[in-house]
Each structure stands twice: as C-alpha cells, then as structure tokens.
Amino acid sequence: MLKLGRAQGVAIxxxxxxxxxxxxxxxxxxxxxxxxxxxxxxxxxxxMVDSILGKIPNPTFDATDAAAVALCxxxxxxxxxxxxxxxxxxxxxxxxxPSKVGS
Length: 103
Hints:
The chain is mostly helical and 103 residues long.
C-alpha cells in the first residue's frame, strides 16, 4: 500500500469520526482552479499561489500544493470567482440578458 493512500485514509477517517464534511479534489481540478490550466506544472502552481497569497517563507512544493488545495476549496463556493448568477447554458444566459447581446 502506498504511504500517501494510508495518510489519506487516516485523514478521512479522522474527519468522519468528528462528523466533518469531507471534500476531495483531483490534482487537475486544483491546478485548473489556481492557474486556469489543469495540466500546470508544480512550478506554475507555486508561482500562482505566490501571486495570489504572497510569499510563503521557504516554500516547498508540498506547502504550495497544500495552499493550492485550500484556494481551490475556497473558490468552489466562497470565492470571488463564483459571485453572480449561474446559467444552464448560453441560451438561458441570452434569454435573461438580452441587453448584453450585440445586434
């Protein structure tokens, strides 16, 4: 068994024991949320984390990855990028915003 899998299992079990909500994100989702590119490198993720949060003292990829996961979670429901109304598609957007469509 992989050590990472064990650590993940323990973290999830601890959260469930305390009746905490458990949320998981794929690496692609985290990268997409932070950099806009789901295939971003660790260096690109670290640079964006630095740009968004400011300098992390003695950053390691583990530290910037953890900060990126936190940012991803923030953006999923509480962040500035999710303000405003959501639409089911272009048709509903156009129907509800005729003034924004050029003639």
